[in-house]
Amino acid sequence: MSRFFGAIHNFKHRAILMTAYGTGATDSEVVNLRVADVDSQRMVIRVRAGKNKKDRYTDALPVLLELLRRYWWAARPQDLVVHGPLAHRPTISVSTIQSVCKAAQADAKIPKLITPHTLRHSFATHLLGEWHRPAGNPGTVGHAQPDHARRAIPAFPTS
Q1: For position 95, which CATH number holds?
Q2: What is the pLDDT of residues 74-130, one digit of tens each?
Q3: Which of 16, 41, 49, 84 is 20 to 30 Å from the Cα of 94, by its Cα?
Q4: How many alpha carbons fall within 13 Å on the CB side of residue 135?
Q5: pTM of the model
């Protein structure tokens, strides 16, 4: 993953994809992330209206919080963490995130397809691959039951 993220030179784009990877959020959840949703003291990020239109909290690693803190100091976002390029389009588009992901994959010379959804599943795989439930809460990855999260990741053994 370091080669992939190292290929992203735009700070805003790196913050977006690192947030997707570090929280398990979908691309649409990341573009709607608000500054108030990042709770660095509790080390969690609130994902609003995620799967089944439910809010959930996901753990935020210190490295992600530090990246978001540096991004905040550089960009000074007011409401949304990541804003769009134009005043009349306040959010960055999901297609932009997908394009950035595709470009980073090509620049890093990674033959396997990497999409924002791949980043979401990589987050879940890394949590479940450690042989414990995500943050003690399957809702971290947007599933009501731990077995649902395991079934969503074919490489994880279900027994």
Answers
A1: 1.10.443.10
A2: 988 888 888 777 656 667 888 989 999 999 999 999 999 989 888 887 765 665 555
A3: 41
A4: 21
A5: 0.73
